[in-house]
Predict the 3D structure of the following.
Amino acid sequence: MSTEKPFDAHEAYLCDKGREPSCWQTTSLVKSIRSGLEGGLYSPTESADGRLSAVRTAARELSRRGLDAHSLIRYGMGQQIVGSVVMAVLSAHVVPYIRIHRPLEIEDFDRDGWLADFDLDGWLKVLDLQEKPAPPANSDEFLRYVGQVVTGMFDSIMPWLATAPIEDLVLLRPPHRIEKLTQDRLQGDLELHRYYRWAVDHFSSTFFQEWATSSLHLAHRWLRGHETPPCGEDLMRERDIVTAQLNEEIALRVVDDQGESVPWENGITVVNTAASEGGNLAATSVQLLEPQMSNHALRLLKQERFREAAAIFEFAVHAIPQNSQFHHHWGFCLMPVEPSEAYKHLVDANELGYTNRARNIYHRMCCLTAVGKETVALQLADSGWRVIAAEPAADAIVWDLTRQPAWQLREVDDIRAGVAELAAHIARRKGQEEEERRWQARLDEL
């Protein structure tokens, strides 16, 4: 099995962490800032002051090298910052008071857990959301209410993102008051979001599958000499872009586009249009917040708060029933506690066209193994292997059943290899030596 990987942002970051920041690769500096921002909520191992210090150190070094770190944070990582505020307010202020039917209930909701290092009262005041929401009559009413709340929040938070000190953005500190942006200023800022998101993707995302579509297009234009990069050419060339792989991903986006995502740079316009035209505000807002929903759910899973994590995507599925990704995430969150129920959601995701077959089959195999259907799990892997082996390598966060204790989250570099390893593990447990050798051979061929 080939292990050659020309660029690995995560590995570079881990290697550099023990060195002085002045010796770090640019990739590691950008990863450090992203890590500091992602720790804005649920960060039990690092203090807010520690995160802020790490971000400042990396930002100073980036700016010294010619990459505007403040713009990188404000614009390139703006979606992450805004989404964290929106998700925290929704989760702490709206969801705890909603009790309609089972799919939207969260038992023993840990409200304080959502508020670590987050001034909820300050945000509620500036967003004019201090009154507790009245329980809705049904799920449709709840979705309409959430859509209205999110629309109003975006109108208020975008000016804060454009003008707040960097320290406030890192720590999610609310302003005392918010001045509305002019439409021209807002559109100009959204163009900067596209531009600096490209820099974030370029330096800190290993696989092109992780890049925003706008970043792929800007990189393509840059390589052809039609786009000015966000920093010097020498800095950009620290990462070698394989043109064939870039073009392949652009082509796949065109072919596989299912209309399941809203580009961040267009998102505010889309939300406002939906509001003015009476569109589905909840659905549009959920699409825009998907990365933050996933980040929040992952933190909950690491704390073994499985049903709270699942509830995030239960809500998302109610807003957009045909979104295969939300069905898959819903099932993923439930796997350690309700594998049979999780399996149903994973099957739904597959039937709705979930594009990463290897990841979906891997997780269905886990569910089947958990309920004693190991033979069926092997049959599933075997029947899907031809399609899996033809997919490009892609990293993934998975539940690991091959080690003890089981149901631990693990990041794998190649989900196809994960399927083969799990199948070999199941065959070994069943004493099927020939089947184990067959899967080991498939693993070696990747």
Summary: The chain has two domains: 11-98+110-289, 321-446. The chain is about 65% helix and 0% strand. The longest strand covers residues 396-400.
